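Supplementary material to the annual report.
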Amino acid sequence: MRGLGVLRVVLIQDLAISRGERTLFSKLDLTLRSGEAATLVGRNGAGKTSLLRAVAGLLRPAAGSIGFEDGNGPIEADTARAEHLHMLGHQDGLKSSRTAWEELRFQTLWTGGTEESARAAAQRFDLRRLLDLEVRRLSAGQRRRLALARLVASRRSLWLLDEPMAPLDAGQRAAFGAVMAEHIAGGGMILASVHDPLPIPARSVEIGA
Amino acid sequence: MRAFGILLRRELALAWGKGGGPLLALTFYACVVVLLPMASGRAPERLASIAPGIAWLALALAALLSLERLFERDYEDGTLDLLAMGPAPLEAVAVAKCLAQWLATGAPLALAAPVAALMLGADLKVMPLLVLCALAGGLAFAFLGGLGAALALGSKRGGLLVAVIVLPLFAPPVIFGAGALDGYAAGLPWTGGLLFLLAYSAGAVALTPLAMGAACRSALD
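Predicted assembly:
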């Protein structure tokens, strides 16, 4: 369980995000603590994805700050992002010409996991029979499961999820709900943009209201 | 360092992968080298005198081939997001990508260059120098090309932009390398050109990753 619970607090203060001339939202305050999940709700284009990307450090906020703390106090944002954070967006970063296993293995090793943990994650998401297939042959739901598997394969405390459930069927949604519940119970944190509520207890945060 | 190795291996696998990489570059190189003599007239002695130059110039052109894909694919499918949140900074990611590009296309081309020069009738004695120039120059081409590819990220006509950005940067190494080869073949001083080429390559390898990292960050923003 390396890494889990290392990051304790995500502190978003007075955050404003602009795309071009347009301000998506401003004065957003949000504190996420170890063992908490929050869902971001709001209409399309309200800035849910932008907020997730800002927390991940991919997008510079127009104003405000995003801070990270471990048990001992604030830590460098770059360190937090390089070691304690998973982001899963609409684009899953899977190369369609490579096999599922090659991609899962790389993503796992890159985010600090091991080959064994990647195999265990594949088992967990019922991907074992698909590992030798090229990613292009997977269905949308299978592909999403492959992308989700890296969350489990390398343990990082903060999960930033952008519509994680969309292509999953009912059974897989329940299974992923169990995975998320386990992550929260282990001291992890989840910040997810959703249209349908997550199958776990989560605080709802309205974006761009 | 471990992360760098993991990434380098992946980039190599992608570059060597189906239908791309070395085979494409080598085929293109062969086309240029075979067609150019047909267009340049029948005098073999004239051909022999420009052979090292042709072999060298064709290298620069072949290096342009797969540049557009270097960052663009990763940008489009979200891999760049993942790479940006990994254990290595984007500058190191850029180095791994360019190094893989060089290993997959530059190095095979450097080995093909003397064969091409020989076919065109160049003197055997320039071959070691040609390989050296091709290896060092290829490194410069890969890193400068990477710079162009990173700067063109997200633009609609990326391929065109890459060529426009990169061509002026390719001019100095082409001139230095050709100077060294010409001088050597004619028995004139040649070390100056080679040293300039090596220095230019070293400069490119050292400096372009900083610019590539910044360009990627700005494209993701």
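Residues 2-220 of chain B form one domain.
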